[in-house]
Amino acid sequence: MTAFDNIRLEKGLYASGDFTGSLERIDPSENYSGTALEGLDAYQRQLKRFDIKVSGAGSDVVDKFFKTSDSAVLFPEYVSRAVKQGMEEANVLPRIVASTTVIDSLDYRSIACEPTEDEKELKVVAEGAFIPETYIKSKENLVRLHKRGRSLVASYEAVRFQRLDLFTVTLRQIGAYIARTQLADAIDTIINGDGNNNSASNSNVAASGSLTYTDLINFWNLFDPYELNTIIASPAEMVKLLGIAEFRDAAAGLDFHGTGEIITPIGADLIKSASVPSGTLIGLDRNCALEMVTTGPVSTEYDKLIDRQLERAVISSTAGFAKIFDSASRTLTV
Predict the structure, then answer these.
(1) Most C-beta atoms within 10 A of its C-beta, which of 24, 216, 221, 224?
(2) For residues 152 and 315, what is the distance between their CA atoms, to the nearest angstrom?
(3) CA 86 to chain centre
(4) Residue pair 232/187 in contact by the 8 Å Cβ criterion
């Protein structure tokens, strides 16, 4: 067993794109079962090794990472984790994505399977008769991936004495920006398609100009055999949606004031996003509507960060989206 305090840290540990994974292969966490270090991953053990506290009232300053050449190697991972934390806190993609695919290139071709009404019905097959087929094929066009990120624009001298807990707040905000932008990409794919002539079917069932409970029922009815379990709306449309009389009864108000939980339309999960066009509601079956394609976790320019060249050091995440079953998502125009 390699003791965690004898590991030589170097830039090459970032080459795989998973710094903590590289450390775990050298210093497996399972070796610390039953010890005082149980529950810490390989990276957290390195923070303990160099006595670096990244959170709380007693957090250290940024300069603590750069006391030695070994501890400086830990700084990019700290940045990545803080940004990732911000992404997770603001991320609603798990509530709409059915599958996530990780690739190691910028080109990806998804598959399509959109059965006809006749193919959706599993008919009785007589002995020796032909068994109906469902075709799965590659889509004609590639999924477009977008690199979303921010540059750290600050000199080392400007941040070296800043407390890490305060610096983490800034990094978490960068992560939140990335998460919101990726949600906007997902919404655009749902509405306009992924480049394979599969834009969402639009239903103008709210023809009266105001959204009613009957409109929602009609919209819900269009999803068969899929399930309308998620609704995404702009802030303005969300107000209209929750203003429907059926969601303003005494029990609904009591639950909202007491727990913050609202009675949702048709039992669907409600997501509010300014990326949805005005006058539009998006409905989808989150179990089979959307695929997320990504090149991996948050990427940081670790060379610059280790060498204290924070200015213009890019933090980014690359992802794209593809529709799985086209009919599993629709739009409603009010």
Answers:
(1) 216
(2) 8
(3) 11
(4) yes
